[in-house]
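User: Can you recover a sequence for this backbone? Please restate the input before giving your answer.

Assistant: Of course. Working from this structure:
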């Protein structure tokens, strides 16, 4: 049987989408794939339908570095309603408990927020995509089951109060991969003695990408059919990997690394991830340091 070739353009780059509310990340990926006519597209960590904001979408060879963007720190702005807890930790769930809201002073909030900054543990919510014995937790939750979830280590880099009302707080958090904002809001609410759930969630940064460099689906659709204009919206793979050291390779080193061979490099930085650029300054893969100042390929894009 003949191999089936995927249809679409061989185009590579990273699109920074400002995902709207009420669509899934997978739906956003399919819209981008259709507009670009791209052969291969994927996202770098999903946003719930009730969350909006920065969603990097990788096209072509960029899908090979999605794991590195997935591991990047994220920054969110969110509003938590005090006095009410829900089954899902957000407005989508049913109300579980309603309690009176204490009169909390801003100075007291500062001390509370500081207590959550640093390395903390979170118990993942039942309404999450994590698996238990091969089944998604959200599927078990919808069936009325609750199972034990081991706590996970996460790091809160910063947690800042943006505004407050009598029954709500709006915060900005910078956190590591795997942090659940809904759980953070619930834990803060419990510390205040009244419970809480998230009513608004917007991701404003993922790694080096923020809302300033993002584009909406409406803007993309206004350029439908104009592939030049659409392609100009793509970011290079280099930009996503700018925090990693760079090695400029000559033609022979490029050839050797693409064939899986190690090459010797003087004064090579001992780093598990190194960007590899060809003589024209284009990234063609990722490498790593090995004993004796040898550079070994770990991912080749061409």
């Amino acid at each position: 049987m003949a191999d089936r070739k995927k249809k679409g353009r061989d185009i590579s780059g990273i699109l920074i989408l400002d995902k709207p509310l009420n669509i899934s990340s997978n739906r956003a990926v399919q819209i981008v794939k259709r507009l670009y006519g791209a052969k291969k597209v994927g996202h770098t960590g999903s946003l719930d339908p009730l969350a909006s904001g920065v969603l990097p979408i990788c096209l072509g060879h960029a899908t090979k570095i999605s794991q590195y963007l997935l591991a990047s720190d994220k920054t969110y702005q969110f509003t938590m309603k005090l006095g009410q807890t829900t089954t899902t930790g957000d407005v989508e769930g049913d109300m579980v408990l309603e309690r009176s809201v204490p009169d909390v002073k801003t100075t007291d909030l500062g001390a509370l927020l500081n207590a959550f900054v640093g390395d903390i543990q979170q118990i993942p919510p039942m309404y999450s995509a994590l698996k238990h014995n091969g089944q998604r937790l959200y599927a078990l939750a919808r069936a009325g089951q609750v199972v034990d979830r081991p706590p996970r280590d996460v790091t809160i880099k910063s947690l800042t109060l943006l505004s407050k009302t009598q029954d709500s707080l709006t915060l900005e958090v910078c956190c590591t991969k795997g942090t659940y904002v809904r759980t953070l809001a619930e834990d803060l609410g419990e510390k205040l003695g009244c419970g809480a759930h998230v009513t608004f969630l917007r991701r404003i940064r993922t790694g080096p990408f923020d809302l300033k460099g993002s584009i909406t689906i409406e803007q993309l659709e206004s350029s439908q059919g104009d592939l030049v204009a659409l392609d100009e919206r793509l970011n290079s793979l280099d930009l996503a990997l700018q925090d990693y050291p760079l090695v400029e390779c000559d033609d022979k080193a490029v050839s050797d690394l693409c064939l899986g061979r190690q090459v010797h490099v003087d004064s090579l930085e001992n780093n598990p991830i190194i960007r590899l650029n060809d003589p024209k300054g284009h990234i063609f893969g990722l490498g790593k340091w090995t004993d004796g100042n040898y550079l070994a390929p770990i991912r080749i894009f061409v």
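That completes the design. The domain at 245-300 is CATH 2.30.130.10 (Archaeosine Trna-guanine Transglycosylase; Chain: A, domain 4).
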